[in-house]
Design brief:
191 residues; Growth Hormone, Chain: A; mainly alpha; 7 helices
């Protein structure tokens, strides 16, 4: 498992998810509140996820984060131009919870996969991979919505998000079975 492939697993940028859901809202204040729901819940969950990873290892939190993300994308499938704001807020908040768990989980697993002498290189490759994923997702967003923001275009984008999210689940099961480069223990045993 290369660092590049581990970093590129996060192909769901917040902007893309929010834009898919927020294409139904024209009011700038409501749009801002909805977009903040992802970030606020990610910030709230990150310290909780950190403690969870310290106590139980990496595997369960990462797999749970992906499951919550899939659930969030399934809820995202229910949003259309008639959706109430509270439902959009709840849906994006669930996605924010997933982001909070996965962000800290992927960073900690990364530093466990590489030796200390390679950690700087690994961090750079990880961030580069995230940027490439964001660029690819933004490009897909531009192609999908080139003809306008309609319920049909939004539905197509939601299907892409669901496919990516479902692919992540077996991927996390596979990735978390690797052994640490620092001591040979499995992630489940690490504290």
């Amino acid at each position: 498992m290369s660092v590049i492939s581990l970093g590129s697993r996060r192909v769901r940028p917040n902007l893309l998810i929010a834009a898919v859901a927020l294409g139904v809202i024209l009011n700038p204040l409501n749009t801002t509140i909805m977009m903040l729901s992802i970030s606020i819940f990610a910030v709230i969950v990150t310290p909780i996820a950190t403690r969870w990873i310290e106590k139980s290892g990496y595997r369960i939190p990462l797999i749970s984060g992906v499951i919550v993300g899939v659930l969030g994308v399934i809820f995202l499938m229910t949003i259309n131009h008639n959706s109430p704001l509270y439902w959009i807020f709840i849906t994006l908040s669930i996605i924010g919870v997933s982001n909070g768990i996965l962000n800290i989980g992927l960073q900690t697993i990364l530093y466990s996969l590489v030796s200390r002498s390679e950690s700087g290189l690994a961090a750079g490759l990880f961030m580069t991979s995230r940027f490439i994923g964001n660029i690819l997702a933004s490009s897909l967003f531009g192609v999908m919505f080139a003809t306008g923001t309609t319920d049909g275009n939004q539905h197509s984008m939601k299907i892409v998000l669901l496919i990516v999210s479902v692919i992540l689940l077996p991927d996390m099961v596979f990735v978390t079975k690797y052994r640490s480069a620092r001591g040979g223990e499995t992630f489940d045993a690490e504290m």
